[in-house]
Write a structure and sequence with these properties.
The complex is a heterodimer of chains A (about 325) and B (about 290). Chain A has about 325 residues and is of the alpha+beta class. In chain A, about 35% of the residues lie in helices and about 20% in strands. Chain A folds into 2 domains: about 190 residues, no CATH class; about 130 residues, no CATH class. Chain A is built from 11 helices and 13 strands. In chain A, helix 6 crosses helix 9, helix 6 packs across helix 11 and helix 7 crosses helix 9. Chain B has about 290 residues and is α/β, with parallel strands linked by helices. In chain B, strand 7, helix 4 and strand 8 form a beta-alpha-beta unit. The radius of gyration of chain B is 18 Å and the shape is globular. Classes of the chains: A alpha+beta (about 325), B alpha/beta (about 290). At the A-B interface, strand 5, strand 12, strand 13 and helix 9 of A face strand 4 and strand 13 of B.
Chain lengths: ~325, ~290
């Protein structure tokens, strides 16, 4: 396993641009840390979770699903170069694994897989989280991994695509004891939050959470939709047409189940016409409905909704309150 | 004949292009009421639609958008497809402006269907309200065309007023048929309106019926409020949730289980439904 200085890492990523559309955590001019092209800002691999919905590289906020002019209908084409995305945490990799499954089962979503097929996922872990937090090592959930030892990055390759890329990296060989120490630190990370949402999930599945709980939580919701907009496993979208002089484009755009109009029908029937129903859905969907449908929790504890919610009712906060009130048994 | 024309699967055939509509020609437009029209369509590529009673299509008008519309005709009637459309939203308002000969896009057919195979040999109680008769009509046509496959067939239909009654000539034909029974009711009749049939809620038509619970399947399609009260009348007749089939209305934006707008707990109304047995959904919050 090679160990790369930040300078070597940047050279490595620049060389990958020959074959890939590279997206990497950068600091934008306004100070925002986000995924971008290497030259759009200063490299910001360290710093923990990217604040935005990281799966937007494959499921962007808005995208064309077809274009219609007087002559023909055109579908979006896959880009010539696949994506190489750096900056997933281990939890983000879990999110991606789920939405890959979501978009492929039953009907395969060709628009999503136009971007996803052939993409290389690079996780970032180790001693490079926000405020010194240790980020869990992802392992084989990704193609490549940058494991920070506090100063440099160990380059771990797991798949054929990852190994082929890693061969081009310039760095010394890492000492096995360093790798073992980092793995030990990763393995010893607490699992408190996982236990919390598992307990909350159990309460929901056993229908032990009364309606009044959702009323008290929804009273604190301002329907800003931030929770949905940053969540890597939120996949809901609206479809609409945009006209220009020469053509019509059919788009899809992220939608939020926290909005009153989300389910409203032309007849006026609105199955989610009350705020407490919408608040319940946000939590219940990930911790109970998806458990029934997909056999798994679909909150991977990335923490984004808790970080962004202006009124403190992100999923972990709600679960904490739920478990405190209705017990963890 | 019945089996040969009905496709075996409910898969939307799209060659992997989920959101690409195919073009159809509007063969005819018939005004049903002040707010409902019946559109008969044919595919421009000449292929069959491959639909089954109970399924829906995503109707697409360039520059306006898409909306889910139930199929109103049975595949046993030929290669055409009919959509009974109430003028209610942006897409359906635009659709009502279209004329015979115009083109329109469709995706689908989508969703589950009335399982006519498992209904074979059973008595059918087909209950619809308002424009719920649109998808029910597809099933009624199928049953008419394969009449020997089924036992007694009873159709109950309720509308708000005489002016809102859909498919009036067909209702009259079903009422006069000796192969099935059909009753129509309206909620109210304003003074000066000619109406010589039942007046009152559709639930009133159920208690007098003689139902053999051991061999009856009830199918309900109507406005959301109707399901709860109709089922309350069916239970005393001995029917259980397994004997009751419902078609639920939600706003499916994609039709393929991706956009999330039609979820009912863990189910997607567009792919797991819209046709459910009541026992699949009765315990799910907000389903009925």
């Amino acid at each position: 396993m090679k160990i790369l200085t930040e300078k070597n890492l940047k050279t490595f990523l620049k060389s990958a641009e020959a074959d890939y559309n590279v997206r990497v955590p950068i600091n934008l001019h306004d100070g925002t840390r986000a995924l971008g092209k290497i030259d759009e800002g200063s490299l910001a691999i360290a710093g923990g979770v990217i604040p935005q919905k990281i799966t937007n590289v494959f499921f962007p906020q808005m995208e064309t699903i077809l274009t219609i002019d007087s002559e023909k209908v055109e579908l979006p084409k896959p880009s010539v170069k696949p994506l190489l995305v750096i900056g997933f945490t281990a939890q983000d990799a879990d999110c991606l694994e789920f939405i890959d499954r979501f978009y492929s089962e039953d009907y395969r979503d060709d628009i999503y897989f136009n971007k996803r097929d052939g993409a290389v996922i690079v996780c970032v872990s180790g001693r490079c989280g926000n405020d010194g937090e240790f980020l869990k090592i992802a392992g084989e959930k990704c193609d490549l991994e940058l494991i920070c030892d506090g100063q440099n990055y160990l380059l771990a390759a797991y798949t054929d695509a990852g190994k082929a890329l890693a061969e081009n990296a310039d760095g010394a060989n890492a000492d096995d004891s360093v790798i073992q120490q980092l793995q030990k630190e990763s393995d010893s990370l607490p699992a408190d939050d996982l236990e919390l949402i598992q307990a909350a999930s159990k309460l929901l599945l056993e229908e032990k959470v009364p309606e009044e709980f959702w009323a008290t939580i929804s009273d604190r919701c301002i329907a800003c939709t931030s929770c949905n907009l940053v969540c890597p496993t939120c996949t809901c979208f609206d479809i609409f047409d945009r006209k220009t002089d020469s053509k019509v484009q059919r788009w899809r755009m992220w939608d939020s189940c926290q909005l009153d109009g989300f389910m409203r029908e032309a007849s006026g029937h609105n199955p989610m016409g009350k705020e407490n129903i919408r608040t319940r859905r946000r939590i219940h969907h990930k911790l109970a409905a998806d458990v029934t449908r997909w056999g798994q929790l679909t909150c991977m504890l990335c923490g984004r909704c808790d970080d962004v919610c202006p009124t403190g009712i992100g999923i972990k906060a709600v679960c904490r309150e739920m478990v405190d009130k209705y017990g963890s048994a | 004949m019945c089996n040969s024309v009905v496709p075996k699967t409910n898969a939307h055939e799209c060659d992997g292009k989920l959101y690409l509509p195919f073009q159809c020609k509007i063969e005819s437009v018939q005004e049903l009421t002040r707010t409902e029209k019946l559109f008969r369509l044919s595919r421009k590529d000449g292929k069959p639609f491959g639909h089954k009673p109970g399924q829906f299509m995503q109707v697409s008008i360039t520059g306006i958008g898409e909306a889910p519309i139930s199929v109103s005709s049975s595949p046993t009637r030929g290669d055409y497809l009919e959509l009974g459309v109430r003028k209610a939203g942006t897409l359906t308002n635009a659709m009502h402006e279209l004329k015979s000969g115009d083109e329109i896009g469709l995706r689908g057919p989508f969703g589950t269907f009335f399982d006519t195979e498992s209904m074979k040999g059973k008595d059918l109680l087909l209950i619809s309200g308002g424009c719920g008769l649109a998808p029910m009509r597809a099933l009624i046509q199928y049953v008419e065309d394969c009449r020997k496959d089924f036992g007694n067939v009873t159709i109950l239909y309720g509308a708000k007023s005489p002016a809102d009654v859909l498919y009036q000539s067909e209702l009259e034909q079903w009422q006069n048929s000796d192969k099935l029974s059909c009753q129509v009711t309206v909620d109210t009749v304003s003074s000066g309106t000619c109406w010589d049939s039942n007046v009152g809620l559709i639930t009133k038509l159920i208690p007098p019926l003689d139902i053999n619970a051991d061999k009856t399947v009830a199918v309900i399609v109507g406005p959301p409020i109707m399901y709860k009260f109709v089922t309350l009348e069916l239970y005393p007749k001995g029917l259980s949730d397994k004997d009751i089939i419902v078609s639920l209305e939600r706003y499916m934006k994609c039709g393929v289980g991706k956009c999330g707008h039609c979820t009912i707990d863990h189910l997607y109304c567009c792919t797991d439904g819209p046709v459910f047995t009541l026992d699949q959904v009765a315990s799910l919050k907000g389903a009925i």
